[in-house]
Write a structure and sequence with these properties.
CATH superfamily: Aldolase class I
Number of helices: 11
Shape: globular
CATH topology: TIM Barrel
Oligomer: single chain
CATH class: Alpha Beta
Number of domains: 1
Distance between the termini: 11 Å
Largest sheet: 8 strands, parallel, barrel
Number of strands: 8
Order of helices and strands: EHEHEHEHHEHHEHHEHEH
Amino acid sequence: MRTLMIAGNWKMNTTPSEAATLVKGMIDGLNQVEGVDKVLCPPFVSLVIVSELVKGTSIRVGAQNMHFEEKGAYTGEVSPLMLSGICQYVILGHSERRQYFSETDEIVNRKVKSALAAGLTPIMCVGERLEENEAGRTTEVVTRQVEEGLRGIDSPGGLIIAYEPVWAIGTGKAATTAQANETTGIIRSTIAELYGKEIAGDMRILYGGSMNAANVAELVQQPEIDGGLVGGASLKASEFVSMVEQAARVSK
């Protein structure tokens, strides 16, 4: 059985003091929940603060992005070596990085390789845009993103994939459970072709895109969905705790 994961992507929200307040509002509730992996992904400036606050608990921390080089003249960037020891996970290839910062599949691939080399667990995001979805190209797009994102990687280790249909991110419009489950199944089949059925069966595939306390239980009950990468709902302590609690009930 794959352990469910609920990861909160805070995006470009919360100052360091606000991040501390948010964590303090959810830490007790999250730490009491067993059977679900809980990950908080605050902005870079709050990674150390959040990491210190959750030390000794069952809560883990992730970064929202990183550069593929270990060091160098890349003003404003953060390297995998800087993250190692502070957090355990790193989100890579999020649609907002692809859309606003022109990240390509090749760049995502280089970042995934660097994260794995540094001992970080990538949460690699894939997903189609609205026009691609309406044109019936969902399978084509997510298959390409998975294949290119993992190109040249002999073993993905504990890598996690997050399926986030771009048209559902921050819009309040989530994919239906059937759509989400079908596409995560396509992703798992792609992994099976690349690495075999055993690795595909062990790999966790999350759903993201307007997941919240109202739909989390229905989504994580789907056989191919192993949790969620949560955006806006993760900025509300009580709602995020509720989502983790609901996921835990489903996993029993």
